[in-house]
Structures are given as C-alpha cells and as structure tokens.
Design goal:
With 614 residues, this protein is mainly α. Helices cover 68% and strands 1% of the residues. This is MFS monocarboxylic acid transporter.
Length: 614
C-alpha cells in the first residue's frame, strides 16, 4: 500500500513535505511525478551523507593504521630486547672455559681457539647478515639465529659429554684413555654459536635503529637492546652456576653441569629465534627509503635528472642544453623520462639502489676506516679478557690454594657494569650530544641545507658533549683496568679482581654502545645493518689476535714453571708472568685507538670539519 507521501506526489497538487521523505541516507525528494519515477528514495543515497560517512571511515581507518603501526613498533622493540637478553650466551664462556682444560684436557691454546672461532663466526659474517636485515627484514636473520644456536649448542653438549679426545690428553696414559669426539667438532659447534649470536643481535639492533633512528631518542633506542645483550651473559651464567650445577660427593654445589647448560641454551635460543621471525618488523620502511632518495636528489650527491638526460640522448637532444629546448620538447622529454624511470624502477628496485649507493659512500669515507681501526684495537683486548676470565682468575693464586671468587661472579660483574655503561652513555648522548639535522649525512654541497648555512644559526643546546668524548672517556677506563692487572697489584689478591672486571666491563660496554650510535648519526639508518655489519667485522680480527697472544704468553708461562710448582699432567699456569705482558700491550693499543678516533673526529676531513653533529 502506497504511503501518504507517495499519494501526494502522484496527485500533482500542492505538495506537502512528509517526514518519511527524509529517510537518511537517502537523497532528498524532488517535486513532481517525473522526479519520483526517476529517483527512488529507497535506492539513492544522500550525497552529503555518503561524503561524511566516507570522511568518517577514512579517519577511522587512518587511526586504526596509526595504532597498528604504534603497536607493531613497540612490540618489535620489546621482542628486540628479549632477543638481546638471550643472544649473548657466548659472553658466559668463562663459566666453563676452564673446565675444557680440566675435564677435556684442552691446552690454553685450544681453549682460546674455541673462543676465537666463535668470535670469527660472530663477526666475520656480519655484513652478510646485515645485508639480509636490510633487504629481507630482521625476521630472516632471527630465524637463522635459532637454527645456528640449536645446532651449535646441541653439538657442543654431546662433544663435551663424550669426554677428552685422545690427542688432547697431556700424557701417554691419559691419551690411551681418551675416547671423546675430535677437537674439531667443538670448534665447529662454537662457530655455529658465533653465527647465531651475530644473527640474533643484529636483527634486534637493526629493528630498533630503523624504527626509532629518525627521532630524538636514537641513543636510548639502541642503548637498551645493546645493554640487554650485555645482561644476557650475567643471567645465563647465574642460571648455570645456581641451577644447572654438578653436585659434589658431600652434596654441596660444584661447577656448572656443562652438558645440561648447553642443552638449556640450545632449546631456549632456538625458541627465541623462531619467535623473533614473527615479531620483529620494520615500520614505515617505504617512507624511510623514499625520503632518503628524495634527499639525495635534492642534495646534488645524486644526479637528479639522469633519466631526463637518458631520454634526451635517446631522441637526439643530448647535445643541447635544456634551456635551448622548446616547451613542447621539454614536456615530451619529461614524459619519456618518466617512462624510462618507471621501467628502471621495475628492473632494479629503488630500495636496492639506495642501499647500494649508501654502502658505496660508506666504504669510500676515510673516517670510517679510522673508526674501524680504533674499534679493532679496543674490542680485541676486551673480547680476550672476557673469554679468559676463568683462566686469569686461576693464575692469581698458587696451585692447590682455593680462590675466593668464581668465574660466574666476574661474568656477572662484567655484564652489570657493561649494561650500566651502555644505558648511561646511550641516555647521556641523547641528552647532551649535539643535535644532528635530519638526514644530514645525505646533504651535499648543492643541497638547500648547505646553501642556508650562511644564515644566522638556530638556537642550540647551551652545553653539549660529543659522543666521541664519551667514547674516549670509557676507552680510557678500559685501559686503566688493563694497567691495574698488568702491574701485578691483583696477584695473590683475588678479591681485588672485581675492580679490574668493573673497569674493563664498563669500557667495553660503552664502546659497543656508542660505536653503532656514531654509525647511525654519521651515515644514517637507511643502510644501518650493512654499515654496522662491516664495522663489526673488526672485533673478529682483534679477538683472534689477542686471544692468540694471550694463549702464547700463558702457555710460555706454564712451560717455564718449575717442575715442583705443579703436577706433571697439569696444563695450567700460575703467577703474574702468565698474563702481565699481554695486558701491558693491550693498554698501549687502546691508547692508540683513542688517537685514531680523535683524528677521525677533528682531523682533516673529519666529522667536526664536515659539520656532522656527532
């Protein structure tokens, strides 16, 4: 039955407007029967209603996307911290390294060889893993880390359980009794552990650098996961020393049960790596890449009209300057250039091109090599100290004298001081360091920012402290710890060793916190994974060199000991001569590194002369 309003419309008489005529979101009714026949209110939506609904839906969709990005960014940050809290298991090496000597009868050179191979696995493939982070995202390296850790620690667990290999036994009688797996199996296992450490750490740090590197809190955003990495060795060594330990005959707690400890690490790190595949994400990476490309084009570092030039050459205008061409020709060439650019972007993605360009500029920067050389000279001695904590402690007292401290204690001291130093330097560098302009590393001589440099300077912080000042300060603290140990002041006083662990731990942690921050400030975050990966190769060489030097000095000291000072089958060394020459040389190397960093900062072509607010 027709409604009253329909009857009134069909009568053609005076039309009254009924409330039924306005049934939102339908279109308002038009007068006349023709209008009613061509526009059915039940089918047509109100133009105004549709517009405002679309606006509302757009706002809601934008808010949902923004909220989702925020959630993903912070979830990735939290899991990056979890990754780093578990990734540094290799820093607990001193917890069981001395047991490789006493239980598996490895020499000091073999014990150091295992740790050196782990360092090589941790640092040498870093550029490859950084490349994977930049190209495929952090999820892929996180999954790889789980596989490397699971394989490495399971293999190490069963290699340890098999007992000493025949070739590692110190005497003929012990050699006959040796039946364990070959020494090379343990080496292979720890090479996989080193690669797992690198993958898990780099996936976490790259996530934080790219998600938060464009803000004012880049120092804290990097310092927190890096500090968490330092804590990982502490809590894992405490779990091993207090939960996964061997029981003595009298029921007391003995050394860590290495087999169960390795099984625990294999299962834990495999799970963390696989979960990181799902949780580590880069937010708004496309925007990051687009902004960097545009800045390069504006800066003059990139020829912004290369596609226009190619189109001009293709159509015979290559020898004419653009100002001599007609407007129609310019328009035509611009359209052709746009087509060329589209085809070019199809063949080689913009992201890959940008990252390759960033890598080239990074490798050609002389200051990068000065920074890397100093990093090599500082981190090598730090790695050697951390890996040999257990054997150093045993040299501090004569044989058969109980040491009043344990390796687990000093692994924790190094971890705590390292973590505090990372947090402090990361936070203070954000608060006190000069503020760097956004994407200042992409600004060339023809950039707008460079053209405006003659204008009056904008207000800046009254008091600033460069990140390089923090770097030099903590490197000096590290050298003080080395000097204290080399001087012999700790010999026969194991309780003083905590001071050495604290100084070296703080210096080592701060250097590892500040170095990636400097890389992100000077060369940007777009290619951070690859850039930091290249720099992070240097500790592999440093750890190899200083691990070998320490082992050589230690073994020479053990060989020169009098026969009555130790057992015939004892491969351990006791006394100041086991370590003092090594740590004197380490301190000198750290001072040389400080000089190189000052040159990269203030020397000709240095960051300060280039206007980089580092």
């Amino acid at each position: 039955m027709p409604s009253p309003s329909c009857s009134k419309r069909s009568s053609g008489a005076h039309l009254a407007i009924d409330k039924l005529d306005y049934n939102s979101p339908r279109r308002p009714l038009l007068g006349g029967s023709d209008a009613s026949s061509s526009h059915d209110p039940s089918n047509d939506n109100s133009y105004a209603g549709s517009f405002f609904e679309q606006v509302a839906e757009g706002v809601m969709e934008r808010d949902r996307d923004r909220l989702q990005r925020v959630v993903v960014r912070w979830l990735s940050f939290v899991w990056a911290i979890v990754n780093c809290l578990c990734a540094g298991s290799i820093t607990a090496y001193s917890l069981y390294g001395h047991l490789f000597q006493s239980r598996l009868h490895y020499t000091q050179l073999q014990v150091n060889m295992v740790s050196i191979v782990a360092e090589l696995g941790m640092y040498l493939p870093v550029p490859l893993f950084g490349y994977l982070c930049d190209r495929l995202g952090p999820g892929a390296p996180s999954a790889l880390s789980g596989g490397f850790f699971g394989f490495g620690y399971l293999l190490a667990a069963f290699a340890y359980k098999s007992g000493p290999p025949p070739s590692a036994a110190p005497s003929a009688a012990a050699a006959a009794a040796g039946h364990g797996w070959p020494f090379a199996v343990m080496v292979l296992a720890f090479f996989a552990v080193g690669m797992g450490t690198s993958c898990m750490y780099l996936s976490a740090v790259t996530t934080c650098a790219k998600n938060f590197g464009r803000g004012n809190a880049k120092g804290v955003a990097l310092a927190v996961p890096i500090a968490a990495f330092g804590l990982s060795g502490m809590w894992q060594s405490q779990v091993g020393a207090h939960l996964l330990y061997e029981k003595m005959a009298n029921g007391s707690r003995g050394d860590v049960d290495v087999f169960r400890f390795f099984l625990f690490l294999a299962i834990l790190l495999l799970a963390v790596g696989l979960l990181g595949t799902l949780t580590l994400r880069i937010v708004d990476e496309e925007e990051l890449i687009d902004d960097a490309v545009e800045e390069l084009e504006r800066s003059g570092l990139l020829t912004h009209d290369e596609f226009f030039t190619a189109a001009a050459h293709n159509h015979g205008y290559g020898t004419l300057p653009p100002q001599d061409l007609s407007d129609s020709t310019v328009d035509f060439l611009q359209s052709e250039a746009a087509a060329l650019k589209a085809r070019h972007e199809e063949e080689a993605r913009k992201k890959t091109w940008l990252l390759n360009e960033e890598t080239r500029r990074y490798m050609l920067d002389p200051t990068m090599w000065w920074l890397a050389a100093g990093f090599f000279l500082v981190t090598g001695p730090g790695e050697a100290f951390i890996n040999n904590l257990g054997t150093i402690i045993n040299t501090l007292t004569p044989p058969h004298v109980d040491v009043s401290t344990t390796p687990a204690t000093h692994v924790s001291i190094v971890a705590i001081t390292s973590t505090l130093a990372r947090l402090i330097t990361g936070t203070l560098s954000d608060i006190l360091a000069p503020v760097a302009p956004v994407r200042s590393h992409l600004q060339g001589p023809d950039s707008i920012a460079n053209s405006l440099s003659s204008l009056p300077p904008q207000p800046t912080r009254r008091f600033t402290v460069s990140r390089i000042t923090f770097l030099l300060t903590f490197a000096f603290l590290l050298s003080l710890g080395q000097l204290l140990l080399a001087s012999g002041a700790i010999q026969n006083h194991p309780n003083r060793f905590a001071l050495v662990s604290s100084l070296i731990g703080a210096g080592y942690g701060a250097v590892f916190s500040l170095a990636p921050i400097v890389v992100s400030v000077v060369w940007g975050v777009e290619n951070f994974g690859t850039n930091w990966g290249i720099l992070a190769m240097t500790p592999a060489a440093g750890a190899t060199l200083w691990g070998a030097i320490y082992a050589f000095v230690y073994q020479r000291g053990a060989d020169n000991m009098n026969v009555g000072e130790k057992d015939v089958d004892d491969v351990l060394c006791y006394g100041k001569s086991c370590y003092a020459p090594t740590f004197w040389a380490m301190a000198v190397c750290v001072w040389l590194a400080m000089a190189l960093w000052v040159y990269a900062w203030r020397g000709p072509g240095g960051w300060k002369r280039r206007g980089v607010a580092v």
